[in-house]
Amino acid sequence: MPDARSEFESDTARAAGGLFLDVVARYFADTGRAAGPVSSPRTSAELARRFAEPLPLQGRPLEQVVARLERDVLGDGNRLCHPMYMGHQVSAPLPAAVWTESVIGALNNSLAVSEMSPTGTAVERQVIRWMGELAGFGAECGGTLTSGGTEATFTALLAARAASLPDAWEQGVGAAPPVVVYGENAHYAVTRAIGELGLGLKSGVVIPSREYRMDADALEAALTRLAREGRPVMAVVATAGSTPTGSFDDLSRIAALCEPRGLWLHVDGAHGASALLSRNHRPLLAGLERARSIAWDPHKMMLLPLAAGVVLVREQRDLEAAFAQRAPYLFHGAEDEPTPDQGIRSFACSRRADALKLWVALQRYGADGIGALYDHLCALTVELHRLIAGNPAFEAVHTPECNILCFRYVGRPRLPGERIDPVNKELRERVNRSGAAWITTTTLAGRRVLRVTVMNPRTEAAHLVALLAVLEREAQSLL
User: Fold this and answer.
1) H or E element, residue 182
2) Confidence at residue 327, expressed as pLDDT on a 0 to 100 scale
3) Cis status, amide bond into 83, omega within 30 of 0
């Protein structure tokens, strides 16, 4: 029987690590050449059978394990670094941040407690300062990294609950909890948080959209009605870069409605807050500095590997008030220290040092460099919109504000109206199965639409032309 301790030592050698690095380097090289399919044509049942095996009781040579990893996992995974991947809001990650993952794993320091991660805590605190400054917050701001925008929004609304109901941690929210007001195109993280916080989904007030943005006039009317009815508002949630269309709510107008009423404004900028790094798109976030809290996902438009989310608050004490628990067996660092424990203001206790890959990315590419990549992705989306406008087989549903565009295949000549929705649904499935490209779909105003999110710096205008050609070819085959 192999000695696990000796194998532990042998696996620490550079040659062992090189096996994994070679796999990743080959993946980067193959996708850079646009070699091979974007995704797998195999069904979920076929892939499940591949891994249906008894629990391995004995180990095997590392070379065999890595070879199977490359063949059976990477071989049929979604290849986000392929320039024809234009699917969900998950990035083709910055290579320097990818390599940093091995350092994070090797250190394995938990960022809940400063003494458990002295350098990691210092890095996270500094990264939060940078992001707070970008958002326009002052010296009193704070925040932590999260698993993503869902956790960030939950944490922010937990802080809003602490401000609205200071006794909720011990007494609960009562029979008549306050309401949360949000737009109809808000991410499901908002309603999930409403349920998780014990408010009940009936405590959510939905504001209709106008051109895919929260209708500020309707918001004003709703806030006036709620005040007249005596229903307290815990928070108003605006969206900067919505999931369906990438649209930005009018943050200045919404903030102007919240401030005189003393209402907590949370901005879900999971996708769009990275526009702060862009010279061209930063104006879309005018008014962001007036929010009480912000959700921001660097693993989206800052192109970091999963997971790297951030919650920011204008005043750090608001975040600390969200978590009323104390654990003297863990948290005993003084709050006036430069690097106090992060666990007292975070939902998680076991926390990866994901701040390191964000720090490395900023050191390697610079804020301006990442902002230029943001502009590149948005410019490509504008180009796709232009190509669609010149092709009668397609119609755009909206004008893009960032890197997301929804459009429809309508045919040439135009299909009957009742045929368009089912054709677009099937068209997306056929294109993705073909391996030639990978896109998503959604429903807007009751219509089935195709949805493209350009998340890869390798994507160029020629790939957009190829995408429309693939869609037309598959549509003609389908029809």
Assistant:
1) strand 179-183
2) 46
3) no
pLDDT of residue 336: 55
* Contact assessment for residue 190 and residue 204, using Cβ atoms and an 8 Å cutoff: yes
Q: Which single residue is written with the structure tokens 């009323």?
A: 324
Nearest to residue 407, comparing CAs of 419, 421, 395?
395
CA distance 241 to 297: 11
At 192 the pLDDT is 96
Report pLDDT for 4: 84
Instruction: Give the model's pLDDT for residue 328.
Output: 47
> What domains does the chain contain, in order, with CATH numbers?
103-362 (3.40.640.10)
Walking along the chain (479 residues) 10 residues at a time, the average pLDDT comes out as 81 94 96 93 93 94 96 94 96 97 94 87 95 96 95 96 91 93 96 95 96 97 97 98 97 98 98 97 98 98 96 93 61 56 78 95 98 98 98 97 97 93 96 96 95 97 97 92
Q: Which residue has the tokens 């909890």?
A: 177
| CB contact set of 263 (below 8 Å; sequence gap of 6+) | 223, 233, 235, 236, 257
Which two three-digit tokens encode residue 65?
């394990």
This model's pTM is above 0.85:
yes
DSSP 339-395: S--SGGG-S-SS---THHHHHHHHHHHHHHHHHHHHHHHHHHHHHHHHHHHT-TTEE
- The DSSP bridge pattern shows strands 447-453 and 440-444 to be antiparallel
Listed residue (188, 191, 298) closest to 235, CA to CA: 191
**Which residues lie closer than 8 Å to 92 by C-beta, 6 or more apart?**
31, 80, 81, 85, 303, 455, 456, 457, 458
Both structure tokens of 117: 């991660």
- Euclidean distance between CA atoms 327 and 336, whole angstroms: 18
Which among 286, 297, 280 is positioned nearest to 143, based on CA atoms?
297
Tokens of 395: 């119609």
Check residue 70 and report its DSSP letter.
I
Determine the pLDDT at residue 350: 84
Compute the C-alpha angle 94/151/404, nearest 5°.
50
CA dihedral (303, 307, 308, 314) in degrees, to 10, reads 140
CB within 8 Å of 164: residues ≥ 6 apart: 178, 232, 234, 235, 264
Written as six digits, the tokens of 381 are 């989306």
pLDDT score at 326: 52
